[in-house]
């Protein structure tokens, strides 16, 4: 049995349920998905400020998940929130859904477009595309959809996403679409059927990459920047996060 912790770094439990469902749909029969909702931080992550305050809760929950036997962890936020810190802190593989989605898209398309939520989230994802070596292949679009509106069936979020995907196909000549938010994970099949091209959800992609790493017996390298943090005192409200 492979145990994969899938953490939603925001505090909205209904979004965690959407993420967990998407993860379980693609997980192997011998994979246990353990969904986790952060216990502290923002209700949604939309921009650099929210991201910064999501990291302590994320790291706290991942520490508990590794202690409880998780063999890999997935950070289910398309900003890959706290990914480097988590890889330094844990010994098990930690996968961000943005990196997983872009790598997966690159397997099947020369050019792809990421359709994300708000304009303030577009630039951070562009920076991740550069970091992951995908800048020449990936276009990033924002559909002006607040993250929490994805949870509201009465919102126009899906219509806005459809319109932006249509523009990506027409203007970017996109060969595949990447959904740029974990809260979109339940839209893969319907959008793929509607638009007739591959649509990739980072949660599902991350699950398959995590299963592969566990099966191969690969763990995060502790040579270089992902070496364990040095023991030191942390003061104030962050004292509990001091490395031992």
TrEMBL record:
Transmembrane segments: none
Catalytic activity: D-5-benzylhydantoin = L-5-benzylhydantoin; D-5-isobutylhydantoin = L-5-isobutylhydantoin; a D-5-monosubstituted hydantoin = a L-5-monosubstituted hydantoin
GO molecular function: amino-acid racemase activity; hydantoin racemase activity
Record InterPro entries: Asp/Glu/hydantoin_racemase (IPR015942), Hydantoin_racemase-like (IPR052186), Iso_Racemase_Enz_sf (IPR053714)
EC numbers: 5.1.99.5
PANTHER family found in the cross-reference section: PROTEIN DCG1 (PTHR28047:SF5)
Family assignment from sequence similarity: Belongs to the HyuE racemase family.
Protein's recorded name: Hydantoin racemase
Lineage per the UniProt record: Bacteria, Pseudomonadati, Pseudomonadota, Alphaproteobacteria, Hyphomicrobiales
């Amino acid at each position: 049995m492979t145990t994969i912790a899938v953490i939603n770094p925001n505090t909205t439990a209904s979004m965690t349920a959407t993420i967990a469902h998407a993860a379980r749909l693609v997980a192997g029969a011998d994979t246990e998905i353990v969904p986790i909702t952060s216990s502290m931080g923002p209700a949604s992550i939309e921009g650099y400020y929210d991201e910064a305050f999501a990291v302590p809760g994320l790291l706290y929950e991942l520490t508990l998940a590794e202690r409880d036997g998780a063999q890999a962890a997935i950070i289910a936020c398309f900003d890959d929130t706290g990914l480097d810190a988590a890889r330094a802190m844990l010994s098990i593989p930690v996968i961000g859904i943005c990196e997983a989605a872009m790598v997966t898209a690159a397997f099947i398309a020369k050019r792809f477009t990421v359709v994300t939520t708000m304009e303030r989230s577009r630039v951070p994802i562009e920076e991740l595309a550069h970091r992951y070596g995908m800048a020449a292949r990936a276009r990033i679009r924002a559909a002006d959809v607040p993250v929490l509106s994805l949870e509201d069936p009465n919102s126009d979020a899906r219509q806005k996403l459809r319109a932006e995907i249509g523009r990506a196909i027409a203007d970017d000549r996109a060969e595949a679409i990447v959904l740029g938010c974990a809260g979109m994970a339940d839209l893969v099949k319907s959008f793929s059927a509607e638009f007739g091209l591959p649509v990739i959800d980072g949660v599902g992609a991350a699950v398959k990459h995590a299963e592969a790493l566990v099966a191969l017996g690969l763990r995060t390298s502790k040579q270089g920047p992902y070496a364990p943090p040095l023991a030191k005192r942390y003061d104030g409200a962050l004292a509990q996060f001091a490395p031992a």
